[in-house]
Amino acid sequence: MLRLSYKFRLYPNKTHLQKLESTLKLCRELYNSALLHRIQAWQKARYLVTYLEQANSLVEVKQVRAEFEEVHFLKNGNLSKSIGDCSWGRFLQYIAYKAESAGKYAIGVAPRGTSQNCSNCGAKVPKLLSYRVHICNKCHIVLDRDINASRNILRLGTSLLGLSSGEAPCVSWE
């Protein structure tokens, strides 16, 4: 039998533990200062600080305090993407496990184009990611972008099971 995965545990030595503790301390400090910044901005001017603004200010913080330079150790974009993909895969495994234990199906579908295609008539409606409403020029349906995408994903998943969209168990369009 071929083993596809391995489970193991790492036992860090004292130097690794010290490095880990110092890195976590710096991460907590950064997180708490960013949270305080967001709270103060809201209390003073009812202004919501975006993630992008805080990410850009992080570069300035790292220039002022050298110890923060080591906090973001995933400088390799491919490694960061691999870790993110691994986490996403783990999440999908968990969803499949929970669905199976509840006697349901969890089917992975390719999400490409699900927010661009109309869930009512199937027409392609190109839009930017920042545009959150789906308005079809062909059938004139107006939906939230995520609702439209979820309907398309449901249709793809049920078609993989060999069912029509009306036969999907426990699903309501309302």
Overview of the structural elements:
- The protein has four helices and two strands, in the order H-H-H-E-E-H.
- The chain is mostly helical.
- Helices cover 51% and strands 3% of the residues.
- It has a two-stranded antiparallel sheet.
- 6% of the residues are buried.
- The protein starts with 13 loop residues before the first helix and ends in a 13-residue tail after the last helix.
- It has two domains: 14-75, no CATH class; 94-167, no CATH class.
Keywords:
mainly alpha; 174 residues; 4 helices; 2 domains; two-stranded antiparallel ribbon; 2 strands
Average predicted confidence as pLDDT: 78
Beta strand count: 2
The end-to-end span amounts to 48 Å
So what's the oligomer here? Answer: single chain
| Helix percent band | 40-55%
* Count of helical regions: 4
* Low-pLDDT windows of residues: none
The computed structural class is mainly alpha
Major sheet: 2 strands, antiparallel
Overall geometry comes to flat
Cα-atom Rg, whole angstroms? 23 Å
Write the layout of secondary structure elements.
Elements: H1 14-45, H2 51-64, H3 77-101, E1 133-135, E2 142-144, H4 145-161
What's this entry about, in short?
The chain has four helices and two strands, in the order αααββα.
